[in-house]
Request: fold
Amino acid sequence: NPSVNGMILGVFPCGIVYIFRQVLLLNPEIAWLGDFRERLANRDLTAPGGPAPRLLGPMARMLRTRQGGRVSLSATSLQTLLDGISSRLDETRETSRYLIGVLVFLGLLGTFWGVMSTFAGVAQQGSATMAAMAPGVAAALITTVAGLLVAIPSMFGYNWLVHHLRTFTVGLDNFAQELVSKMEAEFLADE
Reply:
């Protein structure tokens, strides 16, 4: 079925581009966290300069805002920000999983479509010979193979994305714990 195979081949590059894009979009976030961690090691609670990263933008703005010389970011607001970031990362993961599911189900759709066409052809001929059924079944199975051939590499891409998202999330949680500890130490030192 050329139309279903075409849809499979159209969704596949979209999914691969989406996965690579999402991983590449994490790089500025990771670099910003690395810069800020270096500052924290030197007891500097100022956010790195330059443009704020996309996911960590609200946190960067709050870290740049000072009230009475202190950072205006509380542990509660930091946890709220982390929960929001985690939610956005989960959406990314779910979208990738959805694209892979679409590929598998398009393969199944093509299979059933081919089998139905085969039965329709057999019904028109009035006989169920191997010569009458083989081309239709072969066409149906080609769509299944096409769906699997693109779903399997997509699954590897998905796992790669999930690995990067988890690594980023763990790094972000560790950063938040370090930040809260430094903020508490700064507060206690001032008293």
Q: What stands out?
A: The longest strand covers residues 66-67. DSSP finds four helices and two strands in the chain. The chain has a mean pLDDT of 82. Residues 12 and 181 are 45 Å apart (CA to CA).
